[in-house]
# Entry
Amino acid sequence: MAGLRQWGAGLHGRRPTRRRPEVRAERREDLLNRVVALRGAESDTEGWVRLEVTFQDLRHAEWALWQLSTDAEALAPASLRGALRDRAATLAGRYAQS
# Structure
């Protein structure tokens, strides 16, 4: 399962924050084009890559992971999970009314 694990400082205000997202290997460059900095990377045998990256803040992390759709999942912090869940629910609601 893809994940975004807490690594370093929290997502508060506009403070840069380091996180460890897991993304599908074929989407690695897509995420790297959206982060402030790459700090480390490791691949697994199931087609996922765990990256230690820096985001600008919560909004930046939300935007970057939303771009990856189902190829990434935020596991923490709860505020990021909630923001992505709310965005997905709004979109699903629009299409459910068809």
In short: The chain has one domain: 4-96. Helices lie at 28-32, 58-67, 78-96. The longest strand covers residues 17-24. Confidence is low (pLDDT under 50) at residues 1-13.
